[in-house]
Recover the amino acids of this structure.
């Protein structure tokens, strides 16, 4: 755990520079703390000032400080350890619910290292279910890949993907340890439409082993299909350990 002296917390400097953000008192505290985290001034595992120190430094009531810390903990930004202190949580992977992003870019944006282990690259015959999903005939050839994505050496996603060869004929010749399927497929068949189905599941035994999780760890499963113009490009099954990933969405009804 990282611990700095109170004068090194940066809150006093931030207050002098930017002043208090607008809004209710507890939101002001939340935004101050979030700024410290998002700007990298309070890194992962950094022990933040205690409630008493924050009350003294910021001038807010203990109730206000407590609410801000509770909400930041519930949001996954902080970890509170009874009798030890409150620490900046390790960054948790997240994806936009209504967008399709490159997992390598998401990991890099968190200043972490991405690695991909290629487990399977093969041609298979489409089952009836796969044929319906990809808009082809049962028995037609499909490309199939299974890739495990790692963040700082920890497995965070199993990507089990079927690809329409008519759209991406060179799929099996790619080195996906250097470039993700997302990047390759976006280049050869620009994305025009996507579909997400999200479920909470328990991983199968082989998936538990690959993700290094216990049998009772809940997982997040995203079933994704993408189109380029009128052609279905790919049908993918993306499995994440629930403790290492979350979905985010933004709605604008204006």
């Amino acid at each position: 755990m990282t611990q700095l002296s109170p004068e090194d917390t940066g809150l006093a400097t931030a207050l002098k520079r930017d002043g208090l953000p607008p809004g209710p008192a507890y939101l002001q505290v939340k935004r101050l703390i979030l700024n410290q985290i998002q700007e990298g001034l309070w890194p992962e595992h950094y022990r933040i000032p205690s409630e008493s120190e924050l009350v003294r430094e910021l001038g807010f009531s203990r109730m206000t400080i407590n609410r801000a810390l509770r909400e930041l903990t519930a949001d996954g930004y902080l970890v509170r350890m009874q009798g030890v202190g409150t620490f900046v949580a390790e960054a948790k992977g997240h994806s936009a619910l209504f967008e399709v992003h490159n997992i390598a870019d998401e990991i890099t944006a968190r200043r972490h290292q991405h690695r991909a282990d290629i487990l399977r690259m093969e041609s298979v015959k489409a089952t009836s279910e796969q044929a319906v999903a990809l808009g082809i005939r049962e028995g037609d050839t499909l490309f199939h890949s299974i890739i495990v994505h790692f963040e700082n050496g920890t497995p965070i996603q199993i990507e089990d993907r079927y690809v329409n060869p008519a759209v991406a004929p060179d799929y099996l010749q790619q080195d996906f340890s250097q470039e993700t399927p997302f990047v390759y497929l976006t280049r050869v068949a620009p994305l025009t439409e996507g579909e997400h189905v999200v479920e909470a599941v328990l991983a199968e035994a082989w998936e538990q082993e690959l993700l290094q999780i216990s049998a009772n760890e809940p997982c997040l499963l995203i079933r994704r299909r993408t189109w380029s113009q009128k052609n279905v490009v790919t049908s993918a099954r993306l499995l994440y350990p629930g403790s290492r990933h979350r979905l985010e969405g933004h709605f604008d009804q204006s």
About this structure: The helical segments are 11-18, 25-38, 51-58, 62-74, 103-109, 128-134, 181-188, 205-211. The two ends are 44 Å apart (CA to CA).
